[in-house]
Amino acid sequence: MTIVSFALGAVWHQKFLFGKTWATENKPNLDRKMNIPLIFGGTAVMHSLALAGLSALVSGHGWHDGVHAGALVWFVFVLPPMTATYLFANRSMKLLAIDAGMYIILFSLAGGIMGIW
To answer: Which pTM does this prediction carry?
Structure first.
């Protein structure tokens, strides 16, 4: 499922979707040197951990229940702390909508897939 998260992120952040706006909203942060192995490795570990937890909740319960559980997990456990972090960091709500939007799709899609297993 981590591969699905990376594929979704790659498409989500293309210029034809939200990439241009995302880059504009992140301009001050993108000017700094980035540690690519840490970014991708850390993201893979964190996504694997989050999706393993979701899998424990939804596996074998059917795709419909999986989608709903994924959306609920996003709404209760992802969106609130993400919003608080963006507010304290004085990041734009447009950037929050782009970043959080990807995660509602990811958690709902992953929940549906894992619900079938």
So the answer is: 0.85
